[in-house]
Amino acid sequence: MKLVVKLPPLKPPFIGIVFHHSSDAEQTNQDLITVHNNVDYRIIFEFVNNLVNIKLIAAHSMVTREYLDVTYDAEQLLPWLYHTKNTAFFNFGHLYELNKKEVVAKTSIGLKLFVVKVFKYEVAKVSELN
Length: 130
Fold this sequence. Notes:
By secondary structure, this protein is of the alpha+beta class. The protein has helices spanning 22-27, 31-34, 74-84, and strands at residues 2-6, 14-19, 41-48, 51-58, 64-71, 90-98, 101-104, 115-126. The protein contains three helices and eight strands, in the order ββααβββαβββ. Strands 1, 2, 3, 4, 5, 6, 7 and 8 form an eight-stranded mixed beta sheet that branches. The longest helix is centred in the middle third of the chain and has 11 residues, at 74-84. It is globular.
C-alpha cells in the first residue's frame, strides 16, 4: 500500500491509500462507507522510519481502522500536511491502479465511492522522516 496526496483545484484536498489489487481497495474497511458513512473522521499519522501507520477514527463512536506500514513520498506529503493544517476538511479514500492511472475504488457492496470526509489530522509520533 502507498499513500498519495492531491490538491485538486476547486475541490477539497485528498489523501488516499493505493492498494495493489482493486478487490482489496473495494473490500477493506468498506463498512466505513456502507455503515458509518455519515460520521466525522480524524486521522492520526505515526511515522516510523520510511513508513507511516495511519489510524482513521470516527468521532463520537468506537469505529477505528488502521492502515499499517504504508509507503509515502515525503516530498509530496510534507507540503500537503502544511497546506491542509487549517483546512475545514479533506477527503480520504481507497484507490487502485488501472492502466497506469489511480482510480477511486467503489465498495463491493452498493458500489459507492470509497471516500470519507476527514475534519482533523494529527501527527502522533515522528521517529524519522527521510
